[in-house]
Amino acid sequence: MLEDATPEMSLLELLDRLNDQLCEQGEEPIAFESDCREGVCGACGVTVNGTPHGPVPNTPSCRQHLRAFGGITKLRIEPLRSAAFPVVRDLVVDRSALDRVIRAGGHVDVMAGTAPDADDMLIGHADAEVALDFAACIGCGACVAACPNGAAHLFAGAKLAHLAMLPHGKVERTRRARAVVETLDEFGPCSSYGECVEVCPAGLPLTAVAAVHREGLRAIFKGK
Amino acid sequence: MNAFRFRPRPKVTVAESPVLQAGVPAGDPRTAWRRRCAEYRLVSPANRKKYTVIVVGTGLAGSGVAAALGELGYRVECFTFHDAPRRAHSVAAQGGINAARARKVDGDSLERFVKDTVKGGDFRSREADVWRLGEESIRVIDHMSAIGAPFAREYGGQLATRSFGGVQVSRTYYTRGQTGQQLQIAGAQALLKQVERGTVTLHTRTEMLDLIVADGRAQGIVVRDLVTGELQVVTGHAVVLATGGYGSVYFHSTLAMNSNATATWRAHRRGALFASPSFIQFHPTALPISSKWQSKTTLMSESLRNDGRIWVPVKAGDERAPGDIPEAERDYYLERRYPAFGNLTPRDIASRAARTEIDAGRGVGPLKNSVYLDFRDAISRLGKAVIAERYGNLFEMYHDATGEDPYEVPMRIAPGAHFTMGGLWSDFDQMTSIPGLFVGGEAGNNYHGANRLGANSLLSACVDGWFTLPLAIPNYLAGVTPGPVLESSAPEAKEALENVKRRISKLVGNKGRQRPTTFHRRLGEILYRYCGVMRDAEGLEQGFQEVRELREEFWRDVRVAGAADRLNQELERAGRVADFLELAELMIVDALDRDESCGAHFRVEHASADGEAERDDARWCSVSAWQTDADGNHRRLSEGLRFESVQLQVRN
To answer: Cβ–Cβ of B298/A102 closer than 8 Å?
Structure first.
């Protein structure tokens, strides 16, 4: 029970305050993750009354302010819930499964110093914008936690779509799609419920999910 | 009574032979980097896997150098306290990255980039390093674009640029307002690629707590696994610190909650010189602190000053709502004091002017700690739609953070601690005063002098990470025997490990009452008051005393709940705050010692009639690099600065 919560507080500041109070009572504070508190690093993420990040849609936990909670005064705060994210302690979960997706293929093989002049690699204005829409993912993992199946298709698809839009990324497109799709076994299957896009703080579109299937199929038909 | 209070003046010893050599090749600074590269020794490809390089940090500099060394075939052990490399605070930079590509016909050139950077830094940076920064900036853009950063493009497909941070040319490359994020993600995925290849071993949730120096060389680090609490010695042939700046020493800053100075400070306590610790940039358009529980301040883009007018009520303590204050009772102080620049004065001047108004009691908002940034006139002149198109996302961000609608009521802004120009001193090869210990990005000091230009921070981190360090480190390694690394049972390693253990048990076993955060918050208040936007000798002496008292109180009364053998964020905080309490003292000592104003370091005693910073080039055209001995006494060495390609002049 917190007596001195104010509307300006963010959800995480509420937890800060709660921890102060616990410490005053001689108890141990609750562990939770956060870093930039500006919505860009992706470190924070808790489940509030069943919803990843909190009641405000498409907003990371650090930018969920109490004044936007309406009449909700009782909060049940839990870690992000997914089989792929084991709990480390209290509200802290292990999201390294996401990095295993990137490790497998979410990169471009260009060594330092070997890139050609970026002004010679023409990219249409609109293509660059679309690539950026997909690249905006902050890697928080809320999509996986929101998904009833625990699928990471929004996350993985965003990376595939982002790199497939760029000239250098196109070279390894087939290999990348195979490698990335393979890592998705660690997560659940996608049934296109679309719960992920409701919570995604970067506002990734559902077409990112389609990119997993598109790039995956493309890789199958491409043969070697 | 206060005037009679005993106030020990900080003891500053100036080293007997105070001149530091940076190892810049003699001759023209324009070509120094190319000539230095030509004389670097190399390591044959077959031998590279026999060398282990430890990289601490995975921001733009850390992920870059770890990946680049991995690509070349070295063994890399890379550490981050985050759960994933992508989360490093480079991710939060908004504006862009400068490069001296000078493709547009707008008068830009490498020379002009250097001139802007050196002048912007108020002639307290190393000229040859700035030339290197400009020269390498060209291929940084090519590289970051190739590895996945989707830079904004013109309709013809070429890279788009914009003008940023007060420069008159268009040399800033950007990806909307998320340039740092896109560069950081590209760097982190390049790092993960090397992890997949097996050249880099990545240790997440692992924090460096001490440096191991043996035979006069940096040969390892002591780390704590943040999940299990296990302490471990890791040794290698060289160590790179790419651990970022220390602006979070002010508690309320634009930095992330976990940004800290522990790695650089521990290296300093092991002998690495710390340069210009008092050079801190305060960003004029940060969100003010509105409540006691606010955890940090957030940066709002400087571009808002293009159309917003900054003002405070003429009358101190005016309680009226902004809309009720008539025009005649508003003071548009920037327009009044700097008619040529108006609201677009450089960052440091805007921050100082706001501070002056707030300190005079004319601050606004619930805590009287901010000034208005008003769009009323711009909206009536251009219409709401135009303003929404230009600043829509920023207005939304402001509304989101404060609950106030800037279309209806003026924004409130305040200066916030942002970027630290100071950092570990390094030579032209980015090597600190400890052989084998290298530094990259904001953790270092040499590019930005006393004030950093907008969009130069992402650049310096990328240049250090992808180009300077991967060229300079092999030159050092070539002189070191390949193969076995220092035994973890070596006396130096054991001593460092014991040192860390002792400190942790002291923190965990302390029978105090206050949380580490309480001390951090109080330290921030002291620093903002005495070593903030404006400093004077009397205040700095007072601050010195208060920091010492706070540090004593910390060790007497800190309480770290929980055990050390598992995830314990309270323990992590306590260690970082303990180091901040030491660093803060050195910041104050440096600010007091440097008896001039330059860039962001503004000593009230050294101001011109119109309130500008007055440099003292005869005495202070140098970088102060500090030693701290085992008893905590500070000793200053200095590196003289010479300007050959940019003429020393007053900033205008």
So the answer is: no
pLDDT in tens, B339-357: 888 898 878 889 999 999 9
Contact of B581 with chain A, judged by CB distance below 8 Å, is answered with no
Q: Nearest CB to B68: which of A13, A94, A112?
A: A112
Q: How far apart are CA B349 and CA B533, in angstroms?
A: 9
| Interface check A41 vs B, CB under 8 A | yes
Closest to B440 (Cα-Cα) out of B48, B56, B42, B29:
B56
* Test the B interface: residue of A123, A171, A172, A178 with most B CBs within 10 Å: A123
Q: What is the greatest pairwise CA distance in chain B? A: 76
Domains in chain B with CATH codes: 283-418 (3.90.700.10)
Say whether pLDDT at A102 is over 60: yes
CB pairs under 8 A between A and B: 205
* pLDDT of B6: 55
Nearest beta carbon to residue A8 from set B142, B157, B403 = B403
All structural domains of chain A with their residue ranges: 11-89, 95-221
pLDDT in tens, B123-178: 999 999 999 999 999 999 999 999 999 999 999 999 999 888 778 899 999 998 89
Chain B, 151-180: which have a CB under 8 Å from a chain A CB?
Answer: 151-159, 175-176, 178, 180
Q: Which CATH number fits domain A95-221: 1.10.10.10, 1.10.1040.10, 3.20.20.70, 1.10.1060.10?
A: 1.10.1060.10
Beta carbons of A118 and B146 less than 8 Å apart = yes
Average pLDDT over residues B490-510: 98
Is A109 an 8 Å CB contact of chain B? yes
Confirm or reject contact between A9 and chain B (CB < 8 A): yes
ipTM: 0.98
pLDDT in tens, A139-180: 999 999 999 999 999 999 999 999 999 999 999 999 999 999
Q: Of B185, B204, B400, which is closest to A135 when you measure between CB atoms?
A: B185
Euclidean distance between CA atoms A158 and A135, whole angstroms: 7
Can you tell me the distance from the alpha carbon of B274 to that of B589, in angstroms, rounded to the nearest whole number?
A: 12
Sheet strands side by side (includes B238-241): B200-203, B75-79, B52-56, B238-241, B437-439
pLDDT level of residue A38 (50, 70, 90 thresholds): very high
* Minimal CA separation from A166 to chain B, in Å: 7
A13 touches chain B (CB under 8 A): yes
Q: Report the pLDDT value the prediction gives residue B15, as an integer from 0 to 100.
A: 67
User: Which residues of B have a catalytic role annotated?
Assistant: 347
Six-digit token string for B299: 């940066």
